[in-house]
Structures are given as structure tokens and as C-alpha cells.
Amino acid sequence: MAEIKVYRGHIRNWEALAEELGINKGLSREKREEEIILKAYEKWGGKMADHMHGMFAFAIWDEKEQKLFALRDQFGTKPFYYYQTADGRLLYGTYIREIMEQEGFVKELNESMLQLYLSLTYVAGEETFFKGVKKLMPGHYLEFAGGELKITRYWRPEFHPDENESLEEFADEIHNTMLQMMREVKTADETAESFLSGGVDSSYVFALSDAEMADTCGYDEPKFDESPLAAETAEKLGRKISRLRVTPEDYFGVVHETMRDMEQPLGDASAIVFTLGCKATAKHTKLCYSGEGSDEMFGGYNMYRNAERYGENLPDFYVGNTNIMKEDMKQKILKNYDPANLPINLVKDIYKETEQNDPLTRMQDVDIRIWLEGDIYLNVDKMSTANGLEIRMPITDTRMFDIASRMPAKYKVNEEQNKVAFRTAAAKVLPEEVAFRKKLGFIVPIRFWLADSRYNQDVVRLFHSDIAEKFFNVDAIDAIYQEYVGGNSDLWRQIWTIYTFLVWYEIYFCQA
């Protein structure tokens, strides 16, 4: 007899699994997914995720074996945390708050994470800011029996480029698989909307979906506002669009709420806008599509074009999509700096496993394993669920990754373009000017707002607080801030990352 103790997610290929496992397809979504998980565990055990597609994290108590079994999906779209108490029990959950509320949990700061966070702007790897609380990493499952904990990796991204397949053949594969994803991503009785930016990923998902409404965010600052491009795409597709105007007052008004719901600090400035977007969208739908995963799988970032130039030097410096604060700056501002605690240590084992791969593939591998899980998927999951919205990401699927894993670098990036094959696929349903539009990214006018005394009062407060004094040389971080206000706007990321940590710490360690 087995029992599900914790589950969050959505199983896409539920119809095929229900047929194979003898489950009544007429059951409610909640009941059928529970039945699928339990019967898949009974039939395949630790190999069960090989048969499942979707977003999921769960824990099963196996009464017969007297064992807890927990599994997280291949990409880590849903979080799972665990903690061993002093008396040997295992606390677990898909929220850190669930663990904190259980008997035996002792709240302590894992201060070593701060030094890494200041470079990466997110919490990477299996450690968290709470001492003893660990993440079950993507593509892993755990077993806990008789006081013994065992972690097993069941999946990792592997790349085997196929030079025999043409660009058009890869584009056809992508498009046909995307069509399949969109058929599976929701049932006929569900109604969804779709997040839409000016980029190809969200535009492609929206074009293939049956969503009648798109949701986008914009600003009064034209340089940062992608919403006119999103509106233009929606018009070309004959669909409606809802635009949220994000003001600096709105933005700074939800920073504390966002860091509380995130459970860990996150220095990605777009996370605050995403919070506001989820709040607004949840007022008129409870289900929304989003286009995450394409950049990392299919070569979407501009820096990927430098892969060959980086070459053999990658393992010495490339730790993923962000690396904003160098060691000399951290040494100046931190009261407790450890020269051995370096971000590059997080990815050493990844580089050892990918020695045979080309530089672009090695960069993608790091981003898929570290950046996606630590920043992108965390943000999507935490902010959507906190605001009553369910987000499904059709591109994030092992069947999409299978195509990307066989694709040579030349079909991902070239001198003129990124995501070459993916854009070629998207052009089958999008106007060419949309499919091949230059990547803008989810940019925020925060670099200007932070210098404005109308909005930055909480930043100034925390930079001169007892909390800051506990971790930082206050004169040193103030000097960075003054240089920023004095005109060096490139320092906004460093200031924002320090600030988000201070906000998070105040919430979790200074408030009752």
C-alpha cells in the first residue's frame, strides 16, 4: 500500500498513462494524477519519471517497504525541499514554510550562500539559505528508510549532435512536437490565457494555443516597453490582449511580498514584474501559458554566440546566465568572506561530465541545470501559486529537449541570429518579422528607478540598517550606492541583489 503525501504539478501525457496503467479517464484531474503517480511507482519504481511528461514534484509513503520516496521532474519546474532533524527524522515539502512549521526544525541562516548569491543573484545548487534545508535537484529522487537517506539521479541533459539532419528537418521536428505539446498542455474543458512579450517563444506558444487572450506588461518608459510589440503580435493573430502598466510605485510596493512568497532571496528584477503580472492575470483566468525553456535548450542568449571564443576557458569562469559581482568587490563589502567559497565550484562536476562537448553545449548544460532551476522555474512556480494562477510551460518538456540535444550548434546560433531552428519552426505560424525579431529580454527600468528618491527609500533604509551592519561593511556598500546615484547606472544589479537579500532576511529572521 502506497500513499501520496505531497504532490504539486501537471502530468501532460495522462491519457496514454491512464490507458497503460488501467486508470479510469473519467476521474477528476486531481484523482487521476494521484492514481497515475501511485500506479507508475508500483510498476516502474525509480524509473517512473521516464514514462511521465509534465511538471511535478511529489512524495510517496510506501507502507510495505516502510520507505519515503520523493521525486522531482527532469528540469525542476516544481520545487522539493527536505531537512533532517537532530533526532534523525526527515521533514519535507514543496514549500520551505511547510518544513519550518514542523516539529524538529531549527531555523538558522546558511550564511555561506550569501557570498554565492551576490554573484549569481539566485540560490544555485542543492543548498538553501536555511541551514540544513536542501533542494532535491532536478532529475533526482530520494529514498528515506530506517533513518537512511539515499539520493539517486535518474536523468541529466545529454547532447549528441546529429550532423545528418538539415535545418528544415529540425524545424519540422520542433513544430510537430510543439503541436503535440499544445494538445497535451490542457484538456478541452479548461480555458487558458497566454503570457506574451515581444519575443518569439511566447508568441509561438500563443499562436499554437487556443487562447483568445494574451497578457503582457509594459512601462511608461518606451525604451523598456515591449508591450506594443506584444499588442502588434496579438493583432496579427486576431486575438485580444490585456496590458498591465507597471509603475515604479507598483513595483516597489510588492518587493517585500515577493521575497516572502519566494522563500529565498531572488535578485532577478523581472521577478517583481512577474508578481504583478500574475496578480493581474489571475483576476480573469486561473490558467496561463508561458514560454520558458526555449532559450536554454535552443540557444537563445546572445552570449552563446561567444561560445567558441570562450572555448577551453569556460570551466574557469562560466557559472551560468548571471555573474554580476566579482570576488574583489565581495571581499570589500562582506564581513565574512571565504576565498574558497567560489561560484565556479557549483559547476565543476558539470564541466567534468561534458568534456567531450562543444563550448556552446557546455554553456547550455550549465544553464539548464543551474540557472533554469534556481531562477526561472522558481520564479514561475512561486509567484504564480502565491497569486492563485497556474502556469504551464509547453516548451519545457523532455521531448522538446530531445530535439535540442541532437541539434548541431550551427542550427542554434550563428553570426546573425540565435535560436535559428526554433525561429524557423515558429515562422510556420508567425509572421517572419515576429519569428526572427531580435531578442530583447524581460527588461525592467529598475536601473533608473533605484536612483529616484521617490522610490528608493526602503533601499536606503536597509543599506544603513542593523541588518546590513550584520553582514556588510556598510561604508563599502554605501560607496557603491553613491557611485550608482552619481551616474554609474551599471551598478544597479549589485545594489538590487544586496537589497533583495536584506529584504528577505528581515522578513524571515527579524519579524515574528
The 3D shape can be described as globular
Helix count from the secondary structure assignment: 24
Kindly state the number of beta strands: 13
The name of the CATH architecture of the largest domain is 3-Layer(aba) Sandwich
Question: CATH superfamily assignment of the largest domain?
Answer: HUPs
- Strand % is 5-15%
Structurally, the number of domains stands at 3
Mean pLDDT equals 96
Main sheet specs: 5 strands, antiparallel
- Helical fraction equals 40-55%
The neighbouring-strand order within the major sheet is: 1-2-3-7-8
Category by helix and strand content = alpha/beta
Using the coordinates shown, work out and report the CATH topology of the largest domain.
Rossmann fold
Rg estimate, integer Å: 23 Å
CATH top level of the largest domain? Answer: Alpha Beta
Uncertain runs are: none
User: What's the end-to-end separation, in Å?
Assistant: 41 Å
